[in-house]
Design a protein that fits this description.
By secondary structure, the protein is mostly helical. Helices cover 79% and strands 0% of the residues. It contains 20 helices and no strands. The chain has helices at residues 2-12, 14-18, 22-45, 50-89, 91-106, 115-128, 132-149, 158-169, 176-184, 194-216, 223-244, 248-276, 281-298, 300-315, 318-333, 343-348, 353-367, 372-383, 387-397, 406-429.
């Protein structure tokens, strides 16, 4: 009966209305909880330096937010320029027509030939290849184009939410970064986490797609959507089988070559199509590059706000207390608690990409890269993307403040992906 009531709330829009301020409440909660946990540490444990540590985290996080935005400026400027060349040369229209049969079904509010469809596709393709530097500018371009269709400029539209939730699920077919860190930390077989990462991230992706589709009343049970999803699953199975026959050196070589070749080919094709249409390629690039610079500057306040709150939450010791509490409760049930040591990576993953990466490295350094906990932290790291970072950057780029249910749906996809990662860790390595 409860679930029927919950479903009816979704249908009547109650849930959407009451989650519209979720990001605001979460941001406030991070700051307030951090302060009171620090206060408790001072009163009960005599930790008088805790407030200074929290204050330093504010300054450090604010600086990091600015530096990250500054670091994005160059790559955003370049990719926005390339995308403008593709737009003027007609390449985006060609891509839009190619992906329209599938994308118009999961993004029904975007017209069939709209350039947003091609930007979404290019973003997803770059994410699958692990090319974060290419994926972000394409994603920001997609947000800009979806904002043009959005009747309420301060409120996230349905296509925006679908796009961001699928981004936070973070499906990656080649987890190069995780394997690189495992190699550096002395793993005997750095690629042994490859299969569980692929399966976990696919679980998160499908969960995000289903969750948003239910809320937006999108019918996934048609031949096109089911065919594409079945094809994706078969492709993943084939990819996993192919890589399972290769050595670590071969995996690295094939992955690096494929990613570099595909992205460079895309750039050349975009330029040649523009040349064929007699477009002034250089002027088109400069026009898009100027827009990229403006976008990079515009996201600074949103990114700084989110990173500061997360930094306070972590520096106050709240995360450590949460882990200790979970360990105690799990022990009471008699369930194996080995996975708890990898949970810091799980909790940091939706909050901070660099924080989760640091937790993963710390776990492997402490327990060993080939330990159960070390491998599990790697699977968790690769299972989803950084939800709050993505929401802050992408929504901030188009000045959307009412995120509706994007946070809830994104975190639910994260939860399923991380849960799948833990179960797969036990299945493969325990």
């Amino acid at each position: 009966m409860y679930f029927c009531h919950f479903y009816n709330n979704i249908r009547t829009g109650y849930l959407k209305k009451n989650t519209s301020m979720a990001l605001n409440y979460i941001w406030i909660a991070f700051i307030v909880i951090a302060f009171f946990v620090a206060l408790l540490q001072m009163i009960f444990f005599g930790n008088i330096s805790i407030f200074n540590e929290v204050l330093q985290s504010i300054f450090g996080s604010a600086k990091s937010g600015f530096e990250i935005s500054l670091g994005l400026t160059g790559i955003l400027t370049f990719w926005m320029g390339i995308l403008k060349v593709a737009e003027h040369g007609g390449a985006l229209k060609v891509v839009s027509r190619m992906v329209a049969p599938f994308f118009t079904r999961i993004y029904p509010e975007i017209p069939k030939d709209h350039p947003a469809l091609s930007s979404i596709f290019l973003n997803m393709s770059a994410n699958m290849l692990g090319l974060d530097n290419a994926a972000t500018p394409m994603g920001l371009q997609a947000m800009k184009e979806m904002q043009e269709l959005n009747p309420k400029k301060d409120t996230a539209s349905n296509p925006m939410i679908m796009f961001l939730v699928l981004n936070t699920a973070g499906i990656v077919l080649v987890p190069m970064t995780v394997m690189m860190y495992r190699t550096q930390l002395g793993a005997v077989n750095p690629a042994d986490v490859f299969l569980p990462i692929i399966v976990a991230t696919l679980c998160a992706f499908i969960t995000g797609l289903i969750t948003v589709s239910v809320i937006q009343k999108i019918n996934l049970f048609n031949r096109v959507v089911m065919g594409v999803l079945a094809g994706l699953v078969c492709f993943v199975i084939g990819l996993v089988y192919f890589f399972s026959t290769l050595s670590q050196e071969q995996i690295t070589a094939y992955s690096s070559f494929s990613a570099a070749f595909i992205i460079l080919s895309i750039i050349v094709i975009f330029v040649m199509m523009a040349v064929k249409k007699k477009v002034n390629v250089y002027n088109s690039f400069i026009e898009g590059a100027k827009e990229g610079f403006q976008v990079a500057v515009g996201i600074i306040p949103y990114l700084v706000a989110m990173l500061v709150a997360i930094g306070m939450f972590r520096a106050s010791g709240t995360l450590d207390l949460l882990i200790d509490g979970i360990r105690y409760l799990v022990a009471l049930t008699g369930v194996n608690t080995d996975f708890v040591e990898a949970l810091p990576t799980a909790f940091m993953k939706p909050l901070s990409g660099s924080g989760a990466r640091g937790m993963m490295i710390e776990t492997m350094t402490r327990y060993g890269a080939d330990s159960f906990v070390g491998r599990l932290s790697c699977i968790i790291q690769g299972s989803t993307d950084t939800t709050f970072y993505i929401l802050a950057v992408y929504f901030g780029s188009v000045k959307v403040t009412n995120t509706r249910y994007a946070v809830m749906a994104g975190l639910f996809a994260d939860f399923v992906g991380i849960t799948a990662a833990i179960l797969l860790g036990y299945l493969f390595f325990h």
